Amino acid sequence: MAWNLGPVYAAVGPYNERTMNIRDYAVAMAAYNKWMNEKVYRIAAGISDHERKRNLGAFFKSIHGTLNHILLGDQSWMQRFGGHAVTMTAPDQELFADFGELSAARRKMDDTISAWAAELDEAFSTAPLRFYSVTYKKEHVIPGWAAVVHLFNHQTHHRGQVMTLLTQLGKEVGITDFPWMPYFDKDGAEPR
Question: What confidence tens digit (pLDDT) does each residue in 112-133 have?
């Protein structure tokens, strides 16, 4: 099979007039992360605390447990990126039992990730990042770009699990596709 590797898009805005770099990637993924978290948390707020915390058979058992794990992972990676000690003690450590507190911490973390992404540079991308994994109980070294990709991949992976659980409860998150996030639209509106 031959791949058409020529340009397959029309110039429609400043986001496709440059090549991809780590900052562009991280800024766009931080915007996606924030958009999706707002959607998921808004729907999760509409169900009872009992339903959010009910064991539905997910890896972190419940909607609340999985949302907590995503925040815990984000916190751990931001601590590593900032050169701070990781405070996570286990992958299922509960940061917040109260959904309101969890939601507030999520919004704050999304702002932190967005600010961090805007400051990323190519030097971080190519530098080795040495860290200790609480989950796997060993030290590991990966390039900075791989850690950035993992941060966002981890969020997307587990948020997909939350969306499955919400769907099982009859809740619909709506559009989730990256190209349709408001980040790419001048008016910031989702398609109808």
Answer: 999 999 999 999 988 999 999 9
Closest residue by Cα to residue 102 from 152, 49, 58: 49
Please, is 78 exposed, middle or buried when counting C-beta atoms within 10 Å of its C-beta (0-12, 13-18, 19+)? Answer: middle
CA distance 188 to 184: 7
Topology given in CATH for the domain delimited by 20-182: Four Helix Bundle (Hemerythrin (Met), subunit A) (1.20.120)
Residue 116, CA atoms < 13 Å, CB-side half-sphere: 21
pTM of the model: 0.86
Q: Collapsing DSSP states into helix, strand and coil, what is residue 133?
A: strand
Q: Where are the alpha helices (DSSP H) in the chain?
A: 22-45, 49-53, 63-81, 99-119, 122-126, 144-168
The neighbour count for residue 55, using CB atoms within 10 Å, is 9
Provide the residue ranges of all domains of the chain, joining segments of one domain with +.
Answer: 20-182
Kindly list the distances between the CA atom of residue 9 and the CA atoms of 5, 12, 13, 17, 178, in Å, as whole numbers in the listed order.
11, 9, 11, 11, 16
Interaxial angle between packed helices 22-45 and 144-168, expressed in degrees from 0 to 180 and rounded to the nearest 10: 20
**First CA to last CA distance, the chain:** 36
